[in-house]
């Protein structure tokens, strides 16, 4: 992704050639003393021994770079091509690639070989830095909490901080989109979605945010007004349907599902079964393991076979 825009057209996350320039270097036998041994006296250094012909290296290398950038200066990375630095690789007993060493205080203190999953690499980097947590993970948790607590503007600012460090973070992109919708900025969310590549649109979190936007665009007013209409006339099915859409857009999926189930209970055939169709769409967007989806499917089944 080259660019994400905020509501005013300014940059939220951009690809920057200089980003991580001091944190990630291409090393060699000649520069190893300065880049790794000496540098690790000030900050831990992770060394990635790789080769152009190595398939797993093409996965591990970019993942390591991303996580090192996310550590925001708490660790540095040096990439060593073993084909061009065979003597150095032999000295460090690199028997296969990828092999990753962690240096601290001028000495290798940890290592692993092969492509590990992201969670294990995070643990490796955290241990190398003395337990430093990944700040992106902390920011994401804080942003999610702000959004769930109804602070859409605060969440936007926090997701933006993540994207400035990691522009391709799909969780942050999805959260930013959800926060825009919750803040009433549906046009801005639609603009960002139009810029995302197909592989990102296929990500479950981003697909769920897209569904949230679609539901928000279909709602016919703010939650308080729609709720007042439903309370005034409980058999106003359109108002209840619109209320469910508005509730889901406002990050209240449990309340949205409750309204749709009530609508289905009252008139399952209304508008060609719109309540059931919308419930299925919401369940798909939430994901099969989401508690609201699990409970909602169970309640829908009981109504279907009642």
UniProtKB/TrEMBL annotation:
Keywords: Disulfide bond, Electron transport, Redox-active center, Transport. It comes from the Bacteria. Pfam families: Thioredoxin, TPR_19, TPR_20. Residues 4-130 form the Thioredoxin domain. GO terms for molecular function: protein-disulfide reductase activity. GO terms for cellular component: cytosol. One of its GO terms (biological process) is response to stress. Belongs to the thioredoxin family. This is Thioredoxin.
């Amino acid at each position: 992704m080259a660019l994400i825009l905020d509501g005013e057209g300014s940059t939220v996350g951009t690809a920057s050639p200089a980003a991580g320039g001091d944190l990630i270097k291409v090393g060699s036998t000649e520069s190893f003393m300065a880049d790794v041994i000496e540098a690790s006296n000030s900050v831990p250094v992770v060394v990635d021994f790789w080769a152009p012909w190595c398939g797993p290296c093409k996965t591990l290398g970019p993942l390591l770079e991303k996580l090192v950038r996310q550590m925001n200066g708490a660790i540095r990375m040096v990439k060593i091509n073993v084909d061009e630095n065979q003597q150095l690789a032999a000295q460090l007993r690199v028997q296969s690639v990828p092999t990753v060493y962690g240096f601290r205080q001028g000495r290798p203190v940890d290592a692993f070989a092969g492509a590990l999953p992201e969670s294990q690499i995070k643990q490796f980097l955290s241990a190398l830095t003395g337990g430093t947590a990944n700040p992106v993970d902390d920011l994401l948790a804080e942003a999610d909490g702000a959004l769930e607590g109804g602070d859409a503007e605060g969440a936007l600012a926090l997701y933006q901080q993540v994207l400035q460090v990691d522009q391709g973070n799909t969780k942050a992109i999805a959260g930013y989109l959800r926060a825009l919708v919750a803040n009433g900025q549906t046009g801005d969310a639609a603009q960002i979605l139009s810029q995302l590549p197909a592989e990102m649109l296929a990500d479950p979190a981003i697909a769920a945010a897209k569904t949230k936007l679609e539901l928000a665009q279909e709602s016919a007013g703010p939650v308080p007004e729609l709720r007042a209409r439903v309370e005034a006339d409980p058999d106003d099915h359109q108002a209840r349907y619109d209320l469910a859409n508005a509730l889901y857009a406002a990050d209240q999926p449990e309340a949205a599902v409750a309204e749709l189930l009530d609508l289905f209970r009252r008139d399952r055939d209304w508008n060609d079964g719109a309540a059931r169709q919308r419930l299925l769409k919401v369940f798909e967007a939430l994901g099969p393991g989401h508690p609201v989806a699990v409970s909602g499917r169970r309640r829908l089944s009981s109504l279907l076979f009642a």
